[in-house]
Structure formats: C-alpha cells, structure tokens
Amino acid sequence: MLTRIFGQNPSERELQRVVAALESDDLIIYPTDSVYAFGCSVRSARAIERLRRLKGKDEFALVFADLAQAAEFCRIDNAAFRILRRNLPGPFTFVLPASSLVPDKTLGRRKTIGVRIPAHPVARAIVGALRCPLVTASVREDSEETEYMTDPELIHERYGREVAWVVDGGAGDLVPTSVVDLSGPEPEILREGKGELN
C-alpha cells in the first residue's frame, strides 16, 4: 500500500500503521535524504531474510534515530564520534565495527556495519516510533547495477506486492550516500556520494 507522510508534522496515525507492519515482520520502502530505501526491523529475522532474498545480497546498513542509539549497535571511539557528530544527520553511510547486538543475518561475513542517520524527518520519525534501528538497502529498478528509483508511485507499482507500505515522502534523489570507512586507523572514503565530509 502507498501512504503519504509529510516531513513537517508527520501523521501519528500513518506512522503507527507503518510501525505496526515493521513489528509484524514486514518490509517497507521509505524516503531518506539520498535515495529511497527498503527497511525492516533489526529485531525481525524473518524480515531480514526476506530482504536478503529480495535484494540478492547479505550486507546491509542500519538506520538509527540518533548517535546514542547507534552506539548500542557499533563501537565508536572518540575520533569516530567527532566525525559522526560533525556529519550526521546527513547523507552518509559510516562503516564501523559492529557490536554483538547486530544480527548475523545483517552482517553477512563482515564484522562491520554501515551506520545511517538520515537528515530526512520521515525516516527518523519511523525509526523513532519503532524504537529500534531499521535494516536498510537502497531501492533500484531491478539489480544492483540499475538506476535508483525516485518516484514513489512508480516504486509502488514495481514493489507494492513485496512490501507492506511504500511511504511517499516526495521525489527521491538519484545520488546515493557517501560511504566512509571508520573501522581502520584513518577515515577512508569508499564511495563518493551526496555527502561532503566535514
């Protein structure tokens, strides 16, 4: 189903419908400050498995409401914390060492996890109402090589049967997040994207 949630004064009723789906092991598609993304609750092994099959991959990022929540799921040293604080919320995925709270199904063979705190009020409202992170992956036309999808109605046409809700937050972006690895001794930019590191 397709629902519209506005960034300013998001509808509590619509938010609760989306959260209820996430708590019932469903997938959603929602807007971020870069591209539209699939999301499911980090607590739902069934939904994570469905997302793995749908995307054909087993490495995902986590979307958090704030840095305090992120610190529960990954190890953040002082240097990394300063970088995160300067750049988040924003269109970045920061790679950090995962804590034992991150489900193995989310990590694949890695010991690190991508951390997202989008500067999009709808994304943060969903995570805040869910009270746990979203496991997330970007929405593309078909495979990982195809274009990102930007129109929520076309996204609904393509993926409406695969997910409980497509959350319309307006037109999406074609530029993905910048990916920065903070798991080593020095920050390493793995992908140049929308965010410029401060």
Radius of gyration: 15 Å
What topology, given as strand order, has the largest sheet?
A: 1-8-2-3-7-4-6-5-9-10
Sequence of secondary-structure elements: EHEEHEHHEHEHEHEEE
The total beta strand count reads 10
Task: Give the N-to-C terminal Cα separation.
Answer: 39 Å
Shape: globular
Low-confidence stretches: none
Q: Give the number of helices.
A: 7
Structural class: alpha/beta
Instruction: Compute the average pLDDT.
Output: 93
Share in helix: 25-40%
Proportion of β residues? 15-25%
- Tell me about the largest β-sheet: 10 strands, mixed
List the helices and strands and how they pair.
Layout: E1 2-4, H1 12-23, E2 28-30, E3 37-41, H2 45-55, E4 61-63, H3 67-73, H4 78-87, E5 92-97, H5 104-107, E6 112-116, H6 121-130, E7 134-138, H7 152-159, E8 165-168, E9 178-181, E10 188-191
Parallel strand pairs: 1-8, 2-8, 4-6, 5-9
Antiparallel strand pairs: 2-3, 3-7, 4-7, 5-6, 9-10
